[in-house]
Design brief:
Layout (H helix, E strand, L loop, with lengths): L16 H6 L14 E5 L5 E6 H9 L3 E5 L6 E3 L4 E3 L3 E4 L15 H7 L13 E4 L14 E4 L1 H7 L4 H4 L16 H4 L9 H6 L2
Protein backbone atom coordinates (compact mmCIF):
# COMPACT_ATOMS: atom_id res chain seq x y z
CA UNK A 1 0.00 0.00 0.00
CA UNK A 2 1.58 3.27 -1.12
CA UNK A 3 -1.32 5.54 -0.14
CA UNK A 4 -2.21 6.37 -3.78
CA UNK A 5 -5.76 6.65 -4.91
CA UNK A 6 -7.45 4.78 -7.78
CA UNK A 7 -5.53 5.09 -11.06
CA UNK A 8 -2.43 6.41 -9.30
CA UNK A 9 -3.91 9.89 -8.87
CA UNK A 10 -2.04 10.69 -5.71
CA UNK A 11 -2.62 10.13 -1.99
CA UNK A 12 -6.16 9.46 -0.81
CA UNK A 13 -7.31 12.50 1.19
CA UNK A 14 -7.88 11.81 4.86
CA UNK A 15 -10.57 13.78 6.70
CA UNK A 16 -9.29 15.38 9.90
CA UNK A 17 -10.85 14.04 13.09
CA UNK A 18 -12.08 17.54 13.85
CA UNK A 19 -14.55 17.34 10.95
CA UNK A 20 -16.11 14.22 12.40
CA UNK A 21 -16.38 15.86 15.82
CA UNK A 22 -17.99 18.96 14.34
CA UNK A 23 -20.89 16.87 13.05
CA UNK A 24 -21.83 15.54 16.46
CA UNK A 25 -24.93 16.95 18.11
CA UNK A 26 -24.08 19.30 21.00
CA UNK A 27 -24.72 17.77 24.38
CA UNK A 28 -27.55 19.40 26.38
CA UNK A 29 -26.39 21.88 28.95
CA UNK A 30 -26.35 20.32 32.37
CA UNK A 31 -28.53 22.13 34.90
CA UNK A 32 -27.75 22.05 38.62
CA UNK A 33 -31.24 21.87 40.10
CA UNK A 34 -29.96 22.68 43.58
CA UNK A 35 -29.05 26.18 42.32
CA UNK A 36 -32.45 26.89 40.73
CA UNK A 37 -34.88 28.55 43.16
CA UNK A 38 -38.63 27.96 43.00
CA UNK A 39 -41.36 29.73 44.96
CA UNK A 40 -43.57 27.28 46.86
CA UNK A 41 -47.14 28.40 47.54
CA UNK A 42 -49.62 26.99 49.99
CA UNK A 43 -52.91 25.68 48.58
CA UNK A 44 -54.35 29.13 49.38
CA UNK A 45 -51.75 30.74 47.03
CA UNK A 46 -49.97 32.19 50.06
CA UNK A 47 -46.14 32.21 49.77
CA UNK A 48 -44.79 29.42 51.92
CA UNK A 49 -41.09 28.93 51.15
CA UNK A 50 -38.36 28.99 48.52
CA UNK A 51 -37.20 25.51 47.50
CA UNK A 52 -34.63 24.14 45.10
CA UNK A 53 -35.57 23.15 41.58
CA UNK A 54 -35.02 19.50 42.46
CA UNK A 55 -37.38 19.69 45.44
CA UNK A 56 -40.03 21.42 43.33
CA UNK A 57 -39.84 18.73 40.65
CA UNK A 58 -40.12 15.97 43.25
CA UNK A 59 -43.29 17.58 44.65
CA UNK A 60 -44.82 17.95 41.18
CA UNK A 61 -43.94 14.42 40.01
CA UNK A 62 -45.28 12.97 43.28
CA UNK A 63 -48.59 14.78 42.74
CA UNK A 64 -48.19 16.88 45.88
CA UNK A 65 -47.88 20.16 44.00
CA UNK A 66 -48.76 21.68 40.65
CA UNK A 67 -46.97 24.15 38.40
CA UNK A 68 -48.44 27.65 38.62
CA UNK A 69 -45.89 29.60 36.57
CA UNK A 70 -43.33 28.34 34.08
CA UNK A 71 -40.02 30.10 33.58
CA UNK A 72 -39.68 32.59 30.75
CA UNK A 73 -36.30 31.06 29.92
CA UNK A 74 -36.83 27.30 29.89
CA UNK A 75 -34.64 25.40 32.32
CA UNK A 76 -34.96 21.76 31.30
CA UNK A 77 -33.85 18.66 33.17
CA UNK A 78 -33.26 15.72 30.84
CA UNK A 79 -32.98 12.01 31.49
CA UNK A 80 -32.90 9.04 29.08
CA UNK A 81 -36.70 8.72 29.28
CA UNK A 82 -38.12 12.16 30.08
CA UNK A 83 -37.50 15.92 29.84
CA UNK A 84 -38.97 18.17 32.53
CA UNK A 85 -39.03 21.97 32.72
CA UNK A 86 -38.22 23.48 36.10
CA UNK A 87 -41.08 25.85 37.05
CA UNK A 88 -40.77 29.28 38.64
CA UNK A 89 -43.74 28.85 41.00
CA UNK A 90 -45.49 25.71 42.30
CA UNK A 91 -48.51 25.32 44.57
CA UNK A 92 -49.26 22.60 47.11
CA UNK A 93 -52.47 20.67 46.43
CA UNK A 94 -53.27 20.42 50.14
CA UNK A 95 -53.30 23.31 52.60
CA UNK A 96 -50.52 23.30 55.21
CA UNK A 97 -51.02 25.17 58.47
CA UNK A 98 -48.00 27.20 59.57
CA UNK A 99 -47.45 29.10 62.83
CA UNK A 100 -47.50 32.87 62.62
CA UNK A 101 -43.97 34.06 63.49
CA UNK A 102 -42.74 37.51 64.43
CA UNK A 103 -42.69 40.17 61.66
CA UNK A 104 -39.50 40.31 59.56
CA UNK A 105 -36.82 42.88 60.21
CA UNK A 106 -37.43 46.32 58.72
CA UNK A 107 -35.36 46.94 55.59
CA UNK A 108 -35.49 49.33 52.66
CA UNK A 109 -36.42 46.49 50.29
CA UNK A 110 -39.23 45.34 52.56
CA UNK A 111 -40.74 48.82 53.02
CA UNK A 112 -40.68 49.57 49.28
CA UNK A 113 -42.26 46.20 48.49
CA UNK A 114 -44.95 46.60 51.14
CA UNK A 115 -45.91 50.02 49.74
CA UNK A 116 -45.73 48.83 46.10
CA UNK A 117 -42.98 51.39 45.48
CA UNK A 118 -45.50 54.23 45.70
CA UNK A 119 -44.91 57.42 47.68
CA UNK A 120 -47.44 57.45 50.53
CA UNK A 121 -47.67 61.24 50.34
CA UNK A 122 -48.15 61.98 46.61
CA UNK A 123 -48.60 58.46 45.10
CA UNK A 124 -45.62 59.04 42.82
CA UNK A 125 -42.79 56.57 42.37
CA UNK A 126 -41.37 55.70 45.78
CA UNK A 127 -37.62 55.32 45.58
CA UNK A 128 -36.58 56.17 49.13
CA UNK A 129 -37.72 55.36 52.66
CA UNK A 130 -38.99 58.13 54.95
CA UNK A 131 -39.40 58.07 58.73
CA UNK A 132 -42.87 59.45 59.45
CA UNK A 133 -41.58 60.70 62.77
CA UNK A 134 -37.97 61.71 61.99
CA UNK A 135 -35.26 59.88 63.90
CA UNK A 136 -33.93 63.24 65.03
CA UNK A 137 -37.25 63.71 66.84
CA UNK A 138 -37.52 60.29 68.43
CA UNK A 139 -38.72 58.21 65.48
CA UNK A 140 -37.75 54.55 65.27
CA UNK A 141 -36.85 52.06 62.53
CA UNK A 142 -40.18 50.24 62.67
CA UNK A 143 -42.79 49.09 60.16
CA UNK A 144 -45.19 51.63 61.66
CA UNK A 145 -42.78 54.54 61.18
CA UNK A 146 -41.13 53.76 57.82
CA UNK A 147 -42.86 54.38 54.49
CA UNK A 148 -41.98 54.53 50.80
CA UNK A 149 -41.40 58.07 49.62
CA UNK A 150 -40.36 59.86 46.45
CA UNK A 151 -37.19 61.95 46.44
CA UNK A 152 -39.12 65.22 46.11
CA UNK A 153 -41.41 64.58 49.10
CA UNK A 154 -38.55 63.24 51.19
CA UNK A 155 -36.56 66.41 50.55
CA UNK A 156 -39.52 68.70 51.32
CA UNK A 157 -40.44 66.87 54.49
CA UNK A 158 -36.89 66.78 55.87
CA UNK A 159 -37.08 66.46 59.68
CA UNK A 160 -40.56 67.88 60.12
CA UNK A 161 -43.75 66.17 61.33
CA UNK A 162 -46.78 65.63 59.10
CA UNK A 163 -48.87 68.02 61.22
CA UNK A 164 -46.35 70.78 60.64
CA UNK A 165 -46.70 70.34 56.87
CA UNK A 166 -50.42 69.69 56.76
CA UNK A 167 -49.76 66.32 55.16
CA UNK A 168 -51.59 63.04 55.76
CA UNK A 169 -51.31 59.38 54.79
CA UNK A 170 -54.14 57.33 53.27
CA UNK A 171 -53.29 54.28 55.38
CA UNK A 172 -51.63 53.57 58.70
CA UNK A 173 -48.39 51.69 57.96
CA UNK A 174 -47.71 48.35 59.62
CA UNK A 175 -45.76 45.11 59.23
CA UNK A 176 -46.38 42.72 56.31
CA UNK A 177 -49.41 40.55 56.98
CA UNK A 178 -47.62 37.26 56.32
CA UNK A 179 -44.59 36.98 58.56
CA UNK A 180 -44.02 33.40 57.42
CA UNK A 181 -42.36 34.80 54.31
CA UNK A 182 -40.34 37.48 56.05
CA UNK A 183 -36.92 36.70 54.64
CA UNK A 184 -37.91 37.68 51.11
CA UNK A 185 -39.51 40.86 52.37
CA UNK A 186 -36.21 41.78 53.99
CA UNK A 187 -33.97 41.41 50.93
CA UNK A 188 -33.74 42.24 47.23
CA UNK A 189 -33.15 38.54 46.55
CA UNK A 190 -36.65 37.76 45.26
CA UNK A 191 -37.22 36.63 41.67
CA UNK A 192 -39.19 39.35 39.82
CA UNK A 193 -41.57 36.63 38.57
CA UNK A 194 -42.70 36.09 42.18
CA UNK A 195 -43.96 39.65 42.71
CA UNK A 196 -47.70 38.89 42.27
CA UNK A 197 -47.51 36.38 45.13
CA UNK A 198 -45.31 38.55 47.32
CA UNK A 199 -47.92 41.29 46.95
CA UNK A 200 -50.51 38.74 48.19
CA UNK A 201 -48.45 38.36 51.33
CA UNK A 202 -48.32 42.10 52.01
Amino acid sequence: MDGTGPGGRGPTPVRPAALHLARREPEPKRVVTTLVRVLLLNASHEPLAVVTGRRALVLVVAGKAECVLERSSATVIRSPSVSVSVPAVVRLRRYVRVPYPAPPAVTRAGVLRRDSRRCVYCQGRGETVDHVVPKSRGGTDSWENCVACCVRCNTRKADRLLEELGWSMPLVPGPPRRGAFGRLWSTEDADPAWEPWLAFAA
